[in-house]
Amino acid sequence: MPLKFRFCLLFLFGTSVLFSQSKKYKIHTVAFYNFENFYDTVDDAFTNDDEWTPNGAQHWTTEKYQQKLKNLARVLSEIGTPDNSNAPTLIGGAEIENRAVLEDLIKEPKLQPLDLGIIHFDSPDKRGIDVALLYQKKYFRPTSYSNIPLIIYRKEIPKKEEETEILDDEIEVKKENKNRVFTRDQLLVSGFLEDEEIHIIVNHWPSRSGGEKATSLFREAAGKLNRKIIDSLQKINPQAKVLTMGDFNDSPSNKSIKSGLGAKGIRAEVSEFGVFNPFEELANKGLGTIAYRDSWNIFDQIIMTASLVKSDFSTFNFWKAGIFSRPYLIQNSGQYKGYPLRNTLAEAGFSDHFPVYIYLIKEFK
User: Of 115, 146, 270, 295, whose Cβ has the fewest other Cβ atoms within 10 Å?
Assistant: First the structure.
């Protein structure tokens, strides 16, 4: 149920508080950002990162890396403003080479005052890119975390995608690694947001490389794994509050989201143990987080269990969602005018994705 009152903001002792005529609310921003090729300059012999080195195709120098750190720090410090004057409490990230780059990032002047913690695991992705969670230690206390592998396999794909039909039995668990698609693990973090337990899944689902149709089943498998994780949490606690966020490489209307995960875009249609996707409404309005051939898609989403979309704000619940697309994040000239401002050979940009965010609010007593 939408809130039917006007809000103004007050920043008080590091916590943002929303006020109405008769009530006031605590607010926390939860964000996700695909950092796009967030590599250091060191060649890792065990991953395909050669192009992201000073002598590689991208000419990735120390100067570019330092600029990338500053760019990302600026974005992360501002996501969610002005509705919440505090930076995000929880930040999911993707396309991260290793923990070291995150350690460098949280030391940036714009982020250092936030005292951010890091949860990161290395994934089997051949490019060496992973997902991670950053969190403000003041507000979130992790109690457990694990990386859950997505085990999928590929059979040889015909050259013409329009002639491709992949059957369910073509993705199967095998004893050997032949034809395995090495992709990112799903990161599950449980902990307490202030005094309330919450679970976060950070995702970067298999890409569309090879064609959307030919690779759809891989993302459907990712959606089913996500649903399995949520089911396991709800089995322990039927009212478990779960957020699943990430670059899903699919839009809210695609099968991986609608069927694999089972997300609904209309609150009234969400069952007791179902999940709600507020970004479906934004997609229906023509908004996007990533552009390709002048077509916009929302691949970056934050989806939640029904336990987070109640109208009772005596505990933290969902208020609203948004796409963070400040002017400085947008290419303002050339062939890709209007697109997200990404890296080029000449300089470090921000990302080819816009960040997304939601607000969780709770009545302040």
Answer: 295
Q: What phi and psi values does residue 118 have, to the nearest 5 degrees?
A: -125, 135
66-100 per-residue burial string, b: 16 or more CB within 10 A, e: under 16: eebbebbbbbbbbbbbebbbbbbbbbbbbbbbbee
Alpha-carbon distance of 73 to 41, in angstroms, equals 18
Using left for φ > 0, alpha for ψ between -120 and 50, and beta otherwise, residue 111 falls in alpha
pLDDT, residue 179, reads 85
From first CA to last CA, the distance across the chain in angstroms is 21
| Cα 308 from Cα 178, distance rounded (Å) | 41
Residue whose tokens read 């307490």: 192
- Please state, in angstroms and rounded to a whole number, the distance separating the CA atoms of residues 260 and 265: 14
Rounded Cα gap, residues 188 and 196, in angstroms: 17
Is residue 177 pLDDT above 70, yes or no?
no
Average pLDDT, the chain: 90
Contact assessment for residue 209 and residue 160, using Cβ atoms and an 8 Å cutoff:
no
Q: How far apart are CA 188 and CA 199, in angstroms?
A: 7
CA distance 22 to 74: 35
Neighbour count for residue 275 (Cβ, 10 Å):
24
DSSP designation for 330: B
Q: Please give the C-alpha separations between residue 34 and each of 145, 190, 308, in angstroms, as whole numbers.
A: 20, 21, 24
What pLDDT shows up at residue 82? 85
92-131: pLDDT as tens digits: 999 999 999 999 999 999 999 999 999 999 999 989 999 9
